[in-house]
Amino acid sequence: MTETTENSTPKYKRIILKLSGESFSRAGERGIAMDEVVSISKQISQASELGCQIAVVIGGGNILRGGQFKNESASIQEATAHYMGMLATVINGLALQDALESLGIQTRLMTAIHMHGVAEPYIRRKASRHLEKGRVVILAAGTGSPFVTTDTAAAQRALELEANILMKATRVDGVYSDDPEKNPHAVFYRNLGFDQVVKENLRVMDSTAISQCREHGMPILVFNFKTNGNIQKAVLGDQVGTLISPDR
User: Fold this and answer.
1) Verdict on whether the full-model pTM lies above 0.85
2) Does residue 150 have a known ligand-binding role?
3) What domains lie within the chain, and their CATH numbers?
4) Does residue 193 contact residue 246 with C-beta atoms inside 8 Å?
């Protein structure tokens, strides 16, 4: 049953939801665990049914990371390895698409690298139109270029599609001053400005993504998707995770 709150009107009309590849697998494992994918899909479905327009940018680290070959072998060029990582995100995208559609949610999988047999090519205006029609748009293959992380791809798509906010789903409650799993005294931040993120070198997203969002005033919410209902709560504007807002 879908969880409800006192307020059922979404605060954000359009969001970019950034999911890491690790969210598609069980903790400490690799590959795709469909029970994990279905669990995320149920939360996305709840948020979509509120009337929020959702585009999902996905990583591929559960299958392959482009940087993993960097120091292993000169036989695979680094650019090639990054393209391999982009293809991994498409595999995740196909899994997420089927999981969402099994719940009755209309979707479109769009890729930055053209592969017409499995997905539509990413075209900004077309993606925006899909969102307006209430479809969940899954954005795979990063930006289509090597040496660019999916964090940066998420920031780029948030700006292109004029999202109200970029939401990064993680396995921790938000942003801390240090790794909370290693440092029990790490301080949790409920609200941050971009200046503080940069000054303290807080590990939120990669520096290019932070720079883009900072320059264009795109807020970022970092929250724990493992807590059931948090995606819906985030869309409603409930206090979850860490909100990074443009500095005043």
Assistant:
1) yes
2) yes
3) 14-245 (3.40.1160.10)
4) yes
